[in-house]
Recover the amino acids of this structure.
């Protein structure tokens, strides 16, 4: 304990060096702000993220289902797509998603750039096409000029669109949670109950999957290890990508960062509360029935994982022109 | 002209006094920033404006159809409501709506506060109820605390909700358009074509209805004065409020501020472009067929009416709690 106190003192004196020394003892590391970001690309990506003209209806943007006012999710069980279609799966948070080993619950996209094109062209989500999206953007001189400034090319293409959205999403990290302050040496940042919850989280084995800076997001695991999970969604997880039967019901472990804001929980959005999610995880993944008191302490710890939320000015989108094709929200086909 | 130049000099020296002297010659006055605003109420109202939990689905907020990234409109012909219902009328811009003589196209709400409760409880829009909205807000301690801080009462009620939204909306004015700079004495703020368009706008009679700081919004007028307008919407306008047959097809004259961003046009959203809108207005309201050159000049003038767009940080909404009723986007009833 004296050694650890010394390392805190060094941490306070020398900044990140000492903080890393402290965090190295723990299976969870602090979130760090995004580095090496192309600011021009971020500003363009922010506009695209908020632009519903990337959907057939002109009504659905990235932010509709990954709402940055609400923890980067839509806070509903499964998302609403074009023509009010019911989505097959719960929208994962975009916050800290740059830390994921892959994107989507089944990891079918290698990175944020590969993910960003998916919903635009998915008939059940934004129901547009990449060709139509490019046509929309090309019809607007202000977009043309901004793409040219950022990418130095005369023509807009979908690679530029997804690269810009991904660059913006890389900025959506949430440092400075109370837990991270504790990790960096501020012993008063957590209450006794929160600390007890963290100890339970480690000692019970939650941390086997929920570790690293994102407290998850870095492995695929079977949903229902000790006992089967009765999902309300038909999604089968990683098998859809690998074709291997062993990957059936394997899903990417979700990040627990900002988990207080990203309800409801699980890939099917079936758990409405953190208490319910902790109870199900304990029983099905660890074969452990947490008492109410234990559950409450773990939930208290989880609520200390909420960090600084995205902080930026709402973007103003360039207006359509006479040449811009109009959205088709109510078209029959 | 020397007298006018003198008044400009005085305007530059003495600020608004001189500017008013200049603008007094014109039927349109500059937009002024909002005054006497309750900042605490504005911040609360901003959250409510962006909170989709005021809808049954948890998906539709005020900002969905009055999108502050897109001129305070949704830029679609008629809006999308709960369960993808097609709205009966084009969503008017919320920008500068505090200057309107009444709210909605038919003026059925006296002011912004009276308007704000409408969409929440409209089965074709947000499909919620005031009681359910209050229940949602009361279940969230952070909202409870903010309402108490702003209104000093222990219970949240719908009057507080609509007052806060209205207070936020009062801040959504758009000063500093190039036309306003010209009005205030900056002769270089407009091009020769834009000035010629403004002269046509006045000389042709457009200004009879589109005048004042909002360039409209201050009277009800018949849609189709010289020749009938064949609307694609069943809306009958002001008669629905007054019951007087003389008010059939009387609609509130829309503001032309930021009109480049608030397409499509008219109460039924039938005109996709400004050129089309100017042509229809000329023929049906004034009995005048503008030449292509005249039309282009008027359009050029109209595009000079775009002012400073809302500039604020995207609000972060307080998370729901275990007690918060969950949204019902796909409920059968």
């Amino acid at each position: 304990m004296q050694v650890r106190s010394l390392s805190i003192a060094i941490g306070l004196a020398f900044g990140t060096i000492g903080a890393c020394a402290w965090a190295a003892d723990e299976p969870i590391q602090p979130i760090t702000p995004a580095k090496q970001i192309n600011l021009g690309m971020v500003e363009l990506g922010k506009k695209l993220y908020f632009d519903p003209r990337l959907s057939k209806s002109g009504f659905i943007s990235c932010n509709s289902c990954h709402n940055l006012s609400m923890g980067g999710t839509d806070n509903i069980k499964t998302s609403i797509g074009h023509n009010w279609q019911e989505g097959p799966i719960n929208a994962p948070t975009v916050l800290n998603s740059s830390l994921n080993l892959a994107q989507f619950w089944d990891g079918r996209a290698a990175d944020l750039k590969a993910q960003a094109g998916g919903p635009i062209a998915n008939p059940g989500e934004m129901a547009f096409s990449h060709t139509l999206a490019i046509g929309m953007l090309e019809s607007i001189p202000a977009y043309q000029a901004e793409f040219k400034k950022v990418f130095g090319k005369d023509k807009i293409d979908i690679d530029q669109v997804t690269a810009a959205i991904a660059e913006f999403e890389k900025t959506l990290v949430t440092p400075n949670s109370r837990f991270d302050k504790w990790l960096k040496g501020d012993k008063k940042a957590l209450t006794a109950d929160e600390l007890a919850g963290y100890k339970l989280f480690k000692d019970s084995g939650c941390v086997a999957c929920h570790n690293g800076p994102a407290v998850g997001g870095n492995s695929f695991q079977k949903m229902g290890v000790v006992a089967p999970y009765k999902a309300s969604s038909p999604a089968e997880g990683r098998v859809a990508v690998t074709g291997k039967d062993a990957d059936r019901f394997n899903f990417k472990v979700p990040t627990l960062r900002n988990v207080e804001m990203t309800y409801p929980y699980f890939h099917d959005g079936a758990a409405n509360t953190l208490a319910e999610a902790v109870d199900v995880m304990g029983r099905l993944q660890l074969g452990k029935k947490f008492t109410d008191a234990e559950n409450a302490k773990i939930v208290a710890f989880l609520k200390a994982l909420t960090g600084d939320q995205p902080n930026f000015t709402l973007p103003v989108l360039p207006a359509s022109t006479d040449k811009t094709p109009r959205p088709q929200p109510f078209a029959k086909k």
User: Anything to note?
Assistant: The longest helix of chain B spans residues 2-14. Residues 23 and 313 of chain B are 33 Å apart (CA to CA). Strands of chain B lie at 80-81, 85-86, 220-222, 250-252. The first strand of chain B starts at residue 80 and ends at 81.
